[in-house]
Write a structure and sequence with these properties.
Number of helices: 7
Mean pLDDT: 75
Largest sheet: 6 strands, antiparallel
Protein name: Ribosomal RNA-processing protein 7-domain-containing protein
CATH superfamily of the largest domain: RRM (RNA recognition motif) domain
InterPro entries: RRM_Rrp7 (IPR040447), RRP7 (IPR040446), RRP7_C (IPR024326)
Pfam family, one: RRM_Rrp7
Strand content: 5-15%
Number of strands: 6
Structural class: alpha+beta
Helix content: 25-40%
Strand order of the largest sheet: 1-2-3-4-6-5
Family: Belongs to the RRP7 family.
Shape: elongated
Low-confidence stretches: 91-115, 236-241
CATH class of the largest domain: Alpha Beta
CATH architecture of the largest domain: 2-Layer Sandwich
Distance between the termini: 105 Å
CATH topology of the largest domain: Alpha-Beta Plaits
Organism: Phyllosticta capitalensis
Order of helices and strands: EEEEHEHEHHHHH
Radius of gyration: 37 Å
């Protein structure tokens, strides 16, 4: 007897979805969608009319989720769907040019006595070659409904369908159909000038970042800090610094900064204790040596 699937797991309601047969898998199967009220750490104005869904089917999209709730789960109307990790919808030409000329940088940790030279390269994306996106296994999404009543209705319908074991059929975007690969047997690549623009933008940002870092390092080599010290970096004023010289200078500085011997009172006590133990040990060794000499006295016969 097959075990019963739970209706609730923690705060989630487990909704079984029936995935119809396809060319890639010709047998109907079950997929379990986990749904709960959206509860982010920092609520916003849309939190009270939102649900969070986890373990989405890999061919899920905004249209397929709208169809699921409008046709089979009480007719709840979705305002928008924010799928975790999904690329934004852009045409082929706009995908690569997003952020191409923005020049934005990450607001990361500021370097000491230097400007932030970290550049955000994630905004530069290559154009898409597939018409439909396949999600990662276990992806989640925030489902924002038109109002709070619609969100409550949707969650109530999900709980009812899960409790009564109602069949809810999943209507995906045909993302796994064989037609997907037949269409892309001869892939249509983006225009060459578009790809060249994307690559040039990436390399330009990289060159600007490296130049900013070089200027920051040069400034560190020439401008002392508040304590009067100059930061030691690779590459001196006249040329690259030798690693051995830098290490030797560091060791010499450590030796110079060490306190003098027996500077502290506990060092004097430890030194006296070590000296006394050494003298006691030498005395015991000398006494044993004398006892051995006395034991062998007169017992040595000269050779004939």
């Amino acid at each position: 007897m097959a075990p019963k699937n739970p209706v609730k797991v923690a705060d989630y309601t487990v909704l079984p979805l029936t995935i119809p047969p396809s060319d890639s898998y010709p047998t109907a199967t079950k997929h379990y969608l986990y749904v709960r009220a959206h509860a982010p750490k920092i609520p916003d104005a849309d939190t009270n009319r939102s649900l969070f869904a986890s373990n989405l089917p890999i061919d899920a999209s905004e249209n397929s989720l709208r169809t699921l709730f409008s046709e089979q789960l009480g007719g709840a109307r979705l305002d928008r769907v924010e799928i975790e990790g999904a690329r934004p919808k852009k045409d082929q030409r706009g995908a690569a040019l997003s952020g191409a000329d923005s020049g934005t940088t990450k607001a990361g940790k500021k370097r000491k006595r230097g400007a932030n030279t970290d550049v955000d390269f994630t905004a530069i994306e290559l154009p898409q070659t597939w018409d439909k996106e396949i999600l990662k296994s276990g992806s989640g999404a925030v489902l924002v409904f038109v109002d709070k009543a619609s969100a409550e209705l949707a969650l109530k319908e999900v709980a009812r369908a899960a409790k009564k074991k109602s069949e809810v059929r999943w209507k995906g975007e045909d993302g796994l159909r064989i037609e997907r690969y037949r269409i892309h047997h001869h892939l249509t690549f983006p225009p060459r000038d578009l790809l060249q623009t994307t690559v040039n933008t990436f390399l330009t940002k990289w060159a600007n970042m490296e130049g900013a870092r070089a200027r920051a390092m040069a400034k560190q080599r020439s401008v002392p800090d508040d304590d009067g010290f100059v930061t030691v970096t690779r590459g001196g004023r006249a040329g690259p610094a030798r690693l051995e010289e830098a290490q030797a200078a560091g060791e010499k500085l450590k030796e110079k900064q060490k306190p003098p011997e027996n500077f502290y009172r506990f060092q004097t006590r430890e030194k006296k204790k070590e000296t006394a133990e050494k003298l006691k040990r030498e005395f015991q060794e000398d006494r044993k040596r004398v006892e051995r000499m006395r034991a062998f006295k007169g017992k040595i016969k000269p050779e004939t």
